């Protein structure tokens, strides 16, 4: 006997802890780029629709909601950072796909150059002079006389290094495994990490958060910094030991820090970084996902999967990225 019960379409849920307006924008644009797919917010799905969903698109998802999607084969993040996803969902059998968007790398390189120039041209010092109504010209140094160290030489780090180099800075870089990048002196390993701290006038961290990098940047490294060195963290907050960073700023080992990422976000109101005269606090805005380009990339990956059964490159859950 043939059942008259209609088959439920396998909807692709969008699961995310993001503002309602942002969620609606993601769903609308993803649906526009994938007219043959049914993409809906997780909260709009019935229990049975959730049970049979095999693919999900996610943005900082609630793990409890993902747990209701018991048939998942893979999830596609619309963010480049997946450390939280791996930490909370890495034990699940499905694959995790991170966003690899060239536009994101360009956006990050713009931010790295902008805030490197902010430190290079002594903007924090001029702001302090303004508060004191003090008219004073500080010594000028050419970009070619400054060395910028990039910690993390993935896609974002390589693009940032190229951007800084084209502006005239001397660029050196560090990564866990040794890289070969044109016009960049590449370092690796424990001794290489010490050397980049010793040689850099400005350090930029683009490191992902892994078990190996958590708390990696601490007093033992900050104590090696050149006099007047600056520090920028656009990677992950927990890579830095916050207490040690504050000590380095207070002692003069570091002259100023630009911080866009923190272990707890939003940054608590009582956090000492807010009021520290040598810290610039940014609300995690260095490289936001571009909804337009990100949606196109997710759509292309899904089309390839539908046509060939081939998954995009998935995250190495042991490495964390």
Q: Which secondary structure elements does this structure contain, and how are they paired or packed?
A:
Elements: E1 12-16, H1 20-33, E2 39-41, H2 47-52, E3 55-59, H3 63-67, E4 74-77, H4 83-89, E5 95-97, H5 102-120, H6 123-131, E6 147-151, H7 155-167, E7 170-175, E8 185-188, H8 189-199, E9 202-205, H9 219-222, E10 230-233, H10 242-251, E11 256-259, E12 279-281, H11 291-308
Parallel strand pairs: 1-2, 1-3, 3-4, 4-5, 6-7, 6-9, 7-8, 9-10, 10-11, 11-12
Helix pairs in contact: 1-11, 5-7
List keywords for this structure.
seven-stranded parallel β-sheet, 12 strands, single chain, Rossmann fold, disordered N terminus, alpha/beta, 321 residues
Number of strands: 12
Instruction: Output mean pLDDT.
Output: 94
CATH C-level label of the largest domain: Alpha Beta
The largest β sheet comes out as: 7 strands, parallel
Helix content: 25-40%
How would you portray this structure in words?
The protein is α/β, with parallel strands linked by helices and 321 residues long. The protein folds into 2 domains: 12-101 and 289-308, Rossmann fold (3-Layer(aba) Sandwich); 103-281, Rossmann fold. Helices cover 36% and strands 16% of the residues. The protein is built from 11 helices and 12 strands. The strands form 2 sheets. The chain has a 7-stranded parallel sheet with strand order 8-7-6-9-10-11-12, sandwiched between helices. A 5-stranded parallel sheet has the order 2-1-3-4-5, with helices on one face. Strand 1 (12-16), helix 1 and strand 2 (39-41) form a beta-alpha-beta unit. Helix 1 crosses helix 11 (291-308) and helix 5 (102-120) packs across helix 7. The protein starts with 11 loop residues before the first strand and ends in a 13-residue tail after the last helix. Mean pLDDT is 94; it is low at 1-8.
